[in-house]
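Q: EamA domain-containing protein, please. Structure only.
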Amino acid sequence: MWAICALCSAFFAALTSILAKIGIEGVNSNLATAVRTVVVVIMAWLVVFVTGSGGQLSEISRKSWLFLVLSGLATGLSWLFYFRALQIGEASKVIPVDKFSVVLGIAMALIFLHEAVTVKVLIGGALITLGTFVLIL
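A: Structure for EamA domain-containing protein:
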């Protein structure tokens, strides 16, 4: 099931990039990010209430609150920079550089979460890095 969800995530992330590139034409990238964020917030809260998970809000620990807020700030910064890059750059170059976050995420998982370094992870990360440079040069 995780693989289906991950493929759906990849599909909608790709669609997001194309729709955003079209949508930001003639619009300030920060304003466009704010509009998109409002839509995401409304959609996320609708899903929370439809699934009945809103009652769990009071059960979130302080540590979880801290890291969820920090994650939200990182997401916001990512989106601001991504929309600006899309606005001034070619989508076919911005998208692969943005997806380089996979390699950065693997490195951070190794450093901060102490996840195992395997040959498969190293080769995959190297191939993603190489692919990113091939696509942008």
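A: Brief note, in case it's useful. The chain has a mean pLDDT of 93.
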